[in-house]
Design brief:
alpha/beta; Rossmann fold; Four Helix Bundle (Hemerythrin (Met), subunit A); 241 residues; elongated; 2 domains; 11% strand; binds magnesium ion
């Protein structure tokens, strides 16, 4: 029987609170379709080019939020395929991408009721997510989760992304709790689980049977979560309530 009651819950955003992984691909396809029409390109070939460029950007900027940049992806793809084009297209399609994403966000089952219950127990709850703060807040708002959270922190605020400790320590310091009073829940072994464990936070993996996206396992040195939950509501028990 658990007697310890944890005071704070840190939550990853993508694929922990909202179903993001397939939505990113859909948003990319949405923008690709628009561009192929506009420049009379072959849809499949151009989509593959865009996917390749996305991989290059993601791998070229490890640990900083530039790796999530969509405008750089579209620039690289258009530079290669179209070569000469009106530059104002770039921010427009980036906006189009995020608008599509925000309009199609789906929250995992039982997230809202669970967060409500935990807050009634006095638990402080914050999203900690890699990327720019403005977009994190827009996503949380589009998901309807603003009223269920105390805070949102983004890696932009501390330069380096998870698993670097800064985002975790910023969150607990602002929430005025200690690492040992805090639980982290995420879907990335290295970034969410190990990152939290390295600063003394108990960390669990969210692995739902449907639409889950456990990722980032370290093939050399396995990351072992402190717990695994398959339904979001199970976090209540892990928190000791
Ligand atoms: Mg995630």
């Amino acid at each position: 029987m658990k007697t310890k009651k944890y005071k704070a819950l840190l939550l990853d955003l993508d694929d922990t609170l909202i179903k993001s992984n397939t939505l990113y691909d859909k948003a990319l396809l949405h923008v690709t379709k628009h561009l192929t029409k506009r420049f009379s390109l072959d849809e499949k070939t151009f989509f593959n080019t865009v996917m390749d460029k996305e991989m290059i950007i993601q791998r070229s900027f490890p640990s900083v939020h530039t790796r999530h940049s969509r405008i750089l992806v579209f620039r690289m793809a258009l530079d290669e395929v179209v070569k000469v084009y009106d530059l104002s297209i770039l921010p427009d399609v980036e906006d189009m991408y995020w608008q599509y994403f925000l309009e199609h966000i789906v929250v995992y089952d039982n997230v809202k009721s669970t967060l409500k219950t935990l807050r009634e127990h006095g638990v402080k709850i914050s999203v900690i997510s890699d990327g720019a703060l403005g977009l994190r807040i827009k996503k949380v708002k589009a998901a309807g989760l603003i009223p269920y959270l105390d805070q949102i922190f983004a890696s932009e605020e501390v330069i380096f992304e998870k698993p670097f400790g800064a985002l975790f320590t910023l969150a607990i310091s602002k929430l005025e709790v200690e690492a040992k009073e805090t639980i982290m829940l995420g879907n990335n072994y290295k970034n969410d689980i190990r990152g939290a464990q390295l600063v003394g936070i108990r960390a669990g993996m969210f692995d739902p049977p449907e639409d889950g996206n456990p990722m980032g396992q370290d093939m050399q040195i396995r990351v072992v979560p402190d717990f695994v939950i398959n339904d979001f509501s199970e976090i209540i028990q892990e928190m000791g309530y």
